[in-house]
Write a structure and sequence with these properties.
5-stranded antiparallel sheet; 8-stranded antiparallel sheet; Alpha-Beta Plaits; alpha+beta; Uridine Diphospho-n-acetylenolpyruvylglucosamine Reductase, domain 2; Uridine Diphospho-n-acetylenolpyruvylglucosamine Reductase, domain 3
Length: about 450
Amino acid sequence: MSSALTSSIASRFENIVGSAFVQTEANAVADYGVDGLLPSAVVLPENAEQAAEIVKIATREKFAVIPCGARTSLSIGMTPSRYDVALDMTRLQGIAHYDPGDLTISVDAGMRLAELARILAEKNQFLPLVVPFFENATIGGAIASGLDSPLRHFYGTARDFLIGAEFVDGTGALAKSGGRVVKNVTGYDFHKLLTGSLGSLAVITRLNFRTYPVQPSRRGFLASFADEIHALAFIRELAASPLTPTLVEAITPEFAKLFLQEKSPVASLRLDVHAWTVCVGFEGSSEVCERYARDLGRLARMASTQDAISVHDSQFLSLLEILREAPVSMSRAASRSVVLRLATLPERLADLLRALRSFASSSWIPSAALIRSGSIVYFALLPREGDETATKQIAYFCKSVDSLHGQLEFNASVLFCPRVWKSEFDSKAHVPESPDLQRRVKKAFDPNGTFASGRFVGGI
């Protein structure tokens, strides 16, 4: 967008949202950068109608728009091919509808997750969208980023409790999908496509969720094992049992050394940071929790645990916070961290994990990993400071992971990565089996390519 055009278009934006909510100054737009690309204008609409008018102008003028909230997750994804307007949705913060008795809520996209949690807690309810950047992220940004929660093991991902959405499509039209009630069966579940879309399909303006009651007690169980063989065996035994825990996470010794030592909120638990640790969460009445602790202890002993302890409410919540923020913490553990998210079938998890650790070791790159729900691996590469061979090592690791396709069934994505290495991952990435389908979905929502083009591997 040229400077002359900026002045002309900015005045049209100001006519819609007011001059106080259009920013073109260099210091203002600098806060909205994505991988070094800066927008020419930042616009803050007050409602969905204003957002739609902004999108209509952008579409006519062929401007590239990236919707955003608290901007906590803008670094996720590939570098966009174009970026002219940042559409900041943080002024949309209302509760459109809340029926505690029906366990449903409709909330504007700009409300922060922490504020929504406070409102629900007043009615002894919660939303299991316990995702990274929880204190600052907006509800719309959390959905668009696609980051998942440790509680997915029991409550599922956001797709499972997102029951409806309102959004602006790439033509500037206001659209709806789903509804406000859990048993809504009309229409298609288009709103579920917004999860993990990185703002590339539509501008989310409002979201409808099913909420859940807070249980009387929330506790945890930690079991340490000598190696991943015994740790994963325990997870398999747990999956085959009648128990239904809220979370099941396994952490490598490298992860424990980074995040569970002296300065950790759970340091008093004195975990063995040289062992593999499996974290299990459960909730219910005191009687139910006591039974869980006994049954988990029995399963852990059968799997040859070295040590096992029960964690009560306050300590469990501290541990949950560490696990919730784990992908972000791993991205900050080194100045050039790379954090991958890989999903596979439970029966192939051991093979995938073994291969990843072997590739990292062969590349001479320190690594750490967290295994979620027996099928998701968050794998961090942590190059040493000043290591001039890091770029070559990362390239070798990428090539090695790509060679696994055909041997193992898995899906991989880059969550966090230095900007200078994103092109390396893009060129080495395994193209999805149905890129044409992805492009058709993009075309259906955003026919003119207005939103966040290039944010997915392959330029989608």
